[in-house]
User: Fold this.
Amino acid sequence: MYQYDNYDQAIVDARVDEFRDQVQRRLANEITEDEFKPLRLMNGLYLQLHAYMLRVAIPYGTLSSKQLHMLAHIARRYDRDYAHFTTRQNLQYNWMKLHETPDLLADLASVEMHAIQTSGNCIRNISSDQFAGAAADEVADPRPYAELLRQWSSFHPEFSFLPRKFKIAVTASATDRAALQLHDIGLQLIEQGGELGFRVLVGGGMGRTPMIGHWIREWVPVRQYLSYCEAILRVYNRYGRRDNIYKARIKILVHELGAEEFTRQVEAEWTLLEPLGIDAPPAEYDRIVAQFADPAYDTAAPDTLDRSDPDFAVWVDQNVHAHKQPGYAIATISLKPKGGIPGDASSAQMHLIAELAERYSVSEIRVTHSQNLVLAHVRKADLHALWSALAEADLATPNLDLVTDIIACPGLDYCTLANARSIPVAQKIAARFADLDRQRDIGEMKIKVSGCINACGHHHAGHIGILGVDKKGEEAYQLSLGGSGAEDASLAKILGPGFSEAGVVDAVEKVIEKYREVRASPDERFLDTYRRLGDAPFKEAVYG
Amino acid sequence: MIKLLTGNELLTGDVVWWNGSAWSLHLRDAVPVEPGDPILDHTIAAERVNDPVLIDAEPGTPPAPRTAREKIRGVGPSVRPDLARA
Assistant:
């Protein structure tokens, strides 16, 4: 994975010193909270319901064991012994103290990490496929291109005060594991005639106005994608709606101009920009690509698997994916144990996963937008030992992509923007469907819960989406069906009137039981049944 | 319905409640504050408590904030009772 050079390290270290000074001035009342707030937000420090929250950037969701050990240490030293992995492949600490934050950031910087641009109207953490570099179905590792985007977008002088926040995802497979089409820019690495290039999508997003993005270019040569992104950002920065926060995202601009006119403007801008030579020189591309070279695989690793342990076999079937290298597999660690909080991990669990990565997966860990973790390079011969060690720490729940693998934002338990709690709803649904045989009979089922219209829980992209709303000071929940953040992206549609917390859990069960009744075959996914039949049978089941 | 004065302490971010003479970490200590009470202006000027606000509550021991949001602020995350404030 990428190692900081002197420039990267100097920038991050200088930012820690700068923030330390800003905190000291705030504590000495030399600057007001109004003056300080934008400074702390630029360093990922929010004030939430109960305390300060720090959001740490995990570029394209890739961590080294050393970094995860440090994140665990920070959880124990500065927080309350746990942390929360987010839908943007980042990590959040919930109980920060302002005066300790500079020391915490210095600890992060010591392992090449920071919290810069995890808030504010700038280009946020670049996200990617959690199987990048290992997936059997990718054309090339997309992370070098995500890394170059990270460097380009960090402190970009022209794009530090955009009309609104801006999210970019980079993938390299036809199978979309990163919700590409729901990003401000989605870049899909493809191959044509032996050359790499990008398909470019613009104007997707969730929030209060969900939209699926538009593919505006089928091919940008890989060595020119930075200038093309710069052209997109320039058009957005020039014409994005700064007058109305609710209309300020690029998706609104693309919608109002029309994708064709927006594309025309981007192409005109690119015609001016591209000859200026702002794309990285070939040597820089090559330097970064080289840092993502394949690990030294054990070419003698056996490609067979002993499935005689039935519990292990279930975990393999559910949580293990094909690797491009014979003898290897990709293992997903579920952070959705029975009764757990989606995405939460204790410091002990994080230390253990870091140790297991050192032992079994080239000291590397991935964070998924579904709030799970991945060990991407595990010898098949080591899978049983890995599973046994995970099981001892309640980390071997075999529920990936099943009804209990629920995305949930922090919701009203932590978040100052939320209208309703998300986590208890996820926990109650998970408890209702605890029986693993029932889960596996239901099959692929993506339930996503957001505590407010900002949609951090991706409810628009849920096969079943749940949105928490405020009803005269009380929590209530809207149910939506038919969303997808995968390559078959679609937006979930509201089913009908809302529910109480208990009511929405009952409604989810009625929807799922109706699906089991009307599916064409046990292999037909809920999403496909819904698309075939529409919402009528489910409305009848819930409200009839 | 009464009004309670609450905010987040600058140094720690902790939720605090006005008890009539100082800030307390405990909702049970909160006392009613009349709208227009100069304490709100003093709090804003002192800059040691962020986002000070008057919220609605039913009187009692402890007082019961009206909204779900303020109830949760008063005791801590419902999903982590081990971290609840007494």
In short: Chain A is about 35% helix and 20% strand. The mean pLDDT of chain A is 97. The two ends of chain A are 54 Å apart (CA to CA).
